[in-house]
Amino acid sequence: MAETFTHYIAGEWDDGDGTETFESANPATGETLGTFERGTESDIDRAVAAAEDAFEEWRSLSYIDRAEYLWDIYHELRDRTDELGEIVTKECGKEISEGRADVIEAYHMVEWAAGDARHPQGDVVPSEIPSKDAYMRRKPRGVVGCITPWNFPVAIPFWHMAVTLVHGNTVVWKPAEQTPWCGQIIAEMFDDAGIPEGVFNMVQGFGDAGASIVDDERIETVLFTGSAEVGHEVAAKAAQQGNKLAACEMGGKNGIVITAEADMDTAVHSAVMSSFKTTGQRCVSSERLIVHTDVYDEFKARFVEVASNVAVGDPLDENTFMGPLIEPEHKEKVRSYNDLAREEDVNVLVDRTDLDPAEIPDGHEDGNWIGPFVYEADPYADLRCTHEEVFGPHVALLEYDGDIEEAVEIHNDTEYGLAGAIISEDYREINYYRDRAEIGLAYGNLPCIGAEVQLPFGGVKKSGNGYPSAREVIEAVTERTAWTLNNSYEIEMAQGLSADIKTKDE
Ligand code: UN1
Predict the structure, then answer these.
(1) DSSP code string of 282-345
(2) Closest protein CA for atom 6 of ligand 1
(3) Over the stretch 250-271, which tens digit does the pLDDT of each residue have?
(4) Which CATH number among 3.40.309.10, 3.40.50.2300, 3.30.2350.10, 3.60.20.40 corresponds to the domain 254-444?
(5) CATH number listed for the domain at residues 4-250+464-483
(6) Which atom from ligand 1 is nearest to the alpha carbon of 285?
(7) What is the pTM of this model?
């Protein structure tokens, strides 16, 4: 492709002020997919200015009129699901059913946000004083900066932007540098929908462009989904500015508890899905399997059998279960964690770090291939490999003996708290886990991946505050006004407070 794709600022395709470009590569082949302008601080500056200029007019529209633009995008995402799913797969390497699911998740989120425009947007609240009407109303915060990751390159941008726009904010968005092609297509959709100039702006680029979004004091809210390392920096910088809200959704070191009462088919199926879908590159992927000693040997044998045979290969092939990792640097990171686990003296059960060359499909020799790495480790040992997020198919089996309290204690022994699951036929164990597991997304007898958009999404502890997702985004992108109106000519106060004005002559 000879063309260099640009930013989208103030309703125009915009070459930007920078001199550098970057390329998007197919993680399964290494093939270049496109060349993109690399955004600079001054590009962000212009995008924020455009978003600020557009804000007054955009906020003056009704929710329903704003949502009309999103409905156009909803239909385009639906009509083009197969085509866009294939692009997601080519650019981020997820196998094709996951590529499509990314687009479907995106239009579900758009549907949720645009449909919500016709729902009540506040509360009628009682007052102590009968003549007063009290309400909770919302208003948009202003310019919202969105920084999104590569692993859901279509869905997560719409998690951030759909609700934000319907609620009357304007947007400056930086897509992940690994998936700029998906970014380009989303920007084309906003352009096709005729979104008013400046309401939606996209600047392609790297972390420095993202940092400019966070540093810009005209941006009222930053929505961030990505690594804990960057997310904590975003939150710290926002806190220093005073006015800025940072809503961050970050990673996890997610666990699945498999008790003595577990159904083994459900346990193995859930663990395989949670650990290896998206090649372990979901923030909700599981890297810790906490298994009761009574079922340990059976579970281990069956899990190891599947992990040894799970199909790694061309993500466009319907028979593939795991595609490649996103980029060579990430492959190095996952490899180094596999090495670390060996150094920490765990018992390795499956090691497909270096795949057999016969497994790598023709023409895919330059892909970022890696297979499952499974080991058993002491649940009570203070190991880095069992506590740090790897974001790959790197899975620890942690055998425990004891009751559900013991299992949940091991489960909670990480700094993260995003997602997790329990596999058990005993409702008491399930309910104990539901109430005591320190996570935002908890599943029973299911994999811990695949949340639906109408549920809240997000974690606790180091995993973030969970706001840049589904319905919680509303809290991050609106101000609430407590609005009280008097229907009487008398001023009467709550709490028995006197409204009498007393003068010195009285
Ligand atoms: C992520 O991995 O960053 O629950 C998001 C899921 C998806 C989203 C994951 N709906 O697996």
Answers:
(1) STT-EEEEEEEHHHHHHHHHHHHHHHHH--B--TTSTT-SB---S-HHHHHHHHHHHHHHHHTT
(2) 450
(3) 999 999 999 999 999 999 999 9
(4) 3.40.309.10
(5) 3.40.605.10
(6) 2
(7) 0.97
